[in-house]
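Quality-control log, excerpt.
Job 1 of 2 completed; input and output follow.
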Amino acid sequence: MAQVVRVEAAAPVALPRPVPGAEPGRVLGLVGPPGLGLTRLGLSLLADPARRGTVAVVDVRGWLCPPAAWEAGVPPERLVVVRCAERDLWGRVTAALLEGLPAVYAEVPPGVQEALLRRLGALARSRRAALILRPLRGGLPVGLAHLNLVGEAVLWEGAGSGHGRITRRRLTLRAAGRGAGGIEQILEVVDDGTDALCVVPRLAAAPAGRAAG
């Protein structure tokens, strides 16, 4: 049975283990369909590495708007966005960024070979770079990510009876992998649409056993 943990993204304290954020030399996977808010979460995880140097986003879909990263806490002067829709070039582009930057958030195009993903993971470890992988279809190879955060559901609040202003988004995640201590956990990230994620370098977990929702 999954352990249940409540995560309040607005708490200004570091996230304790076993649920780390973007760590040097680690791969973090963000898995799930579009529309859950995983991109915003991934960008917020770049905020802490951006304090140490320039960070990069590999934008496969061409959708990313740089202000979204700025709002998530990444200073404009510390952000590089590389648009790369070609699968054959994607691996080389991502590897080049890992060679010189402390953190990279990369959308993964469909059809990328497992061997390439594992080589990128090994490169991230050797360069002590944080690598956040967001596959656009399916998941990641078993054992590649130190921590996998899988989007399970999203709940929008504030638009009653089909109209009105959305005031909050609750994203339910399933955390698994070595970074979760080998114990699957259910997390809830709360985003009120202002600076709930951008002021926090790492998500802050409440005591284990508290039910989400």
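Job 2 of 2 completed; input and output follow.
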Amino acid sequence: MRLKMTVNGNEYVVDVEQEPEVRPVPGPIVIGGGAAPAAAAPAAAAAGGAGPNDVTAPLAGSVARFEVAEGDKVEAGQVVVVLEAMKMETEIAAPKAGTVTKLLAEVRQAVQGGQPLLTIE
């Protein structure tokens, strides 16, 4: 769209473009349901590597809280840990049903993307 404007007696012609609206994806993020992103692989290796039963951080941040404790039974899709990054919280869901066998981080601990947070057997 082309607009004509006058500012302080000077005439200007401005082209305006409308960008498509981007909508956020609702729901929790499920980790471990598919292939890990390439960027997460170096962080996971630096953190000692994630096992097949580990739930990993999708991004760098700090652990805001665990929604489960060791020994708790969880269902696939259940929120198990909440990360905080840039004043925003990200819910991490269990990729499968099972029992939480070990918490691998602590509340308020800084974590890197790909770092294991807990283990579900």
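Post-run check on job 2. The longest helix spans residues 40-46.
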